[in-house]
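Sequence only, no structure available. Ideas?
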Amino acid sequence: FAMPPIVAECHGSGNDKVLSSCIVNSTLINTLYAILIFLVTELSLPVLSMFGQEEVVVSAAIPYIRLSVYSMLPFMVFQSFRSWSDGIGNTKIAMVAIIIGNSANIVLNYIFIFGKLGFPEMGVTGAALSSLVSRIIMLFVWFLVIRNKESFTSTLRSLSLEKVDKTMLIRLLGLGFIMALQMFFEVLMFTASTLMMGVLGEVQQAAHQIALNIITITFMVTTGFSVAATIRVGHYLGKKEIAELKPAGNTSRLCSKKHIKCLLFVLKPG
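Reply:
I predicted one. Tokens follow.
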């Protein structure tokens, strides 16, 4: 979350040295975070049954969660490079990688979940396995797309562990941790409601999860507007074009407002 505004400002001011330092330190933070999440999750799995969930749900959830945690490493590395390309204003690269990765995920879900093309039927575990493979594909596709873009490859060639910088680490953590806490409390409410549904039964929990996925799709549109505003404001800030900051922020707010009105019209009873 801290990458796009910092990268946007560096790109706007033409400060490539700080830009490459941002990428290295962000990737380091995300990699260590993925490892930490893996360790915490492994320690938490034995107590999963204490949340009042049905045994059939717990037994299916454990292998799913474990494989999902494995996929955190390629996903978090992808997030660092995605935030870099997004921050300089090229959002199409990440979009292509995500579309290809999600398309592969759909196909692999069908193969692994239902046991097609000679693979065993793995059920919900197959869904987690397909997510792991698709996230690796997303990272691979990102590098594949930028291979002929000199502005990207020149920066990648300059990356090294020598650019691990305490000041940049503190800056990324200071900005990113607060933003992550906001998202954490938002997600926490939805997660708590899912656990409550699990107490009622697996059918209620499944129905709730379907509804939650639909709601999440609408939420991501406004999130996209907010990230776009962050990037545009960062570019103008880096270029010292202060007069353009307010129009960029107001435009994003207007887009989000129109999106919400459209949703309310569509969801209006009758």
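The mean pLDDT is 84.
Hope that gets you unstuck.
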